[in-house]
Design a protein that fits this description.
CATH architecture of the largest domain: 3-Layer(aba) Sandwich
Number of domains: 2
Largest sheet: 6 strands, mixed
CATH topology of the largest domain: Rossmann fold
Structural class: alpha/beta
Radius of gyration: 21 Å
Order of helices and strands: EHEEHEHHEHEHHEEHHEH
CATH superfamily of the largest domain: P-loop containing nucleotide triphosphate hydrolases
CATH class of the largest domain: Alpha Beta
Distance between the termini: 35 Å
Strand order of the largest sheet: 2-3-1-4-5-6
Helix content: 25-40%
């Protein structure tokens, strides 16, 4: 009865998909920020269940599903829908009501952005034989009264009737509240079979790619307005070095990265007065990368301008990290 398969984490931007993946894996793999659309690419993370007959859940963290107009946004949404089409389980992450008025409402009203997600996920489930849907209502820690969930759960169940969800589970991805129950529901929905990946594997993403993401994360965290959405990071040099010291051999990594923005004004913001902003971005990113690779990191950043790259499909594929 060993089970194994793919579970795509899907939902609107900024509902906590990457936070959930990081919590389940027990380490930071996907970048996070308070800004929506931080995640641009599909990120694979392997979670092995050792209890009972065991299971392997291969999670696919995805960009938020929304009505994207630019080539960059459309490509991001396609990344999410492609992951959904190739998954055994679709995990729909929905954000619990956050305002006092919504929490006190007797009836749940589904917004137009949420209807877009439900429409897309229902289409995938109906198209793909054997696809299963599990729903998680996230950020329940912000509810003043858990009874506010009752109309939400009823409304979601009605809206998703055509997709026939197997379970609706309240969770808090940040604290882990309810995540054990959610994992149990996902495990039950997986097909029987052998592991997809070796037990020691965490992700299919190379350290080089993850390092670029950690630089981009700091741009999201430190820069305001439109700057993060027009930024891309390419690793030009990723060199592992063995250093001879008095204590013996010691590994470190030297990285050179190009941070691309769309306009000269954005470059000025990213560089900052006297280079202060780019130094801060580099310092924070270096600490994050060192935590990932487990050794000292030397990071050199440069900023360049490629006008309107997010509006050109060829540049989006090249700079956006899309395969």
């Amino acid at each position: 009865m060993h089970r194994a398969g793919f579970c795509a984490i899907l939902g609107r931007p900024n509902v906590g998909k990457s936070t959930l993946l990081n919590h389940v894996l027990g380490q930071k793999l996907a970048i996070v920020s308070p800004k929506p659309q931080t995640t641009r690419n599909r990120i694979l993370g392997v979670h092995n269940v050792t209890d009972g007959d065991g299971a392997q859940i291969v999670f696919l963290d995805t960009p938020g599903i929304h009505r994207g107009r630019s080539p960059l946004n459309r490509t991001m949404v396609n990344e999410a829908l492609d992951a959904a089409a190739n998954a055994d389980v679709l995990l729909y992450l929905f954000e619990a009501p956050q305002t006092a008025a919504d929490q006190l409402a007797e009836h749940f009203e589904l917004g137009p952005a949420e209807r877009v997600v439900i429409q897309e996920l229902t289409a995938v489930v109906q198209r793909k034989a054997g696809a299963k849907l599990v729903v998680a209502v996230n950020k329940v820690d912000r509810l003043r009264d858990r009874r506010a969930l009752l109309p939400v759960l009823a409304g979601l169940e009605a809206a998703l009737a055509a997709a026939n969800p197997l379970a609706l589970v309240p969770i808090c991805a940040r604290t882990g509240d309810g995540v054990t129950s959610l994992l149990a529901e996902i495990e039950k929905a997986l097909p029987e079979g052998a592991d997809v990946y070796p037990e020691e594997m965490l992700t299919d993403r190379a350290e080089r790619w993850l390092a670029a993401e950690m630089v981009r994360e700091q741009v999201f965290l430190l820069c305001d307005k439109e700057v993060p959405y027009g930024a891309a990071v390419e690793i030009e040099v990723f060199e592992e070095r063995e250093r001879d010291t008095a204590e013996g051999g010691r590994r470190d990594i030297f990285i050179e990265a190009a941070l691309t923005v769309e306009r000269d004004s954005q470059k000025g913001i990213v560089v900052g007065k006297g280079g202060r902003m780019i130094k801060e971005i580099g310092m924070r990113a270096r600490e994050e990368i060192a935590g990932l690779v487990g050794c000292p990191v030397h990071l050199k950043l440069r900023v360049r301008v490629e006008a309107g790259w997010t509006e050109r499909a060829d540049a989006v594929r090249r700079l956006g990290g899309f395969s």
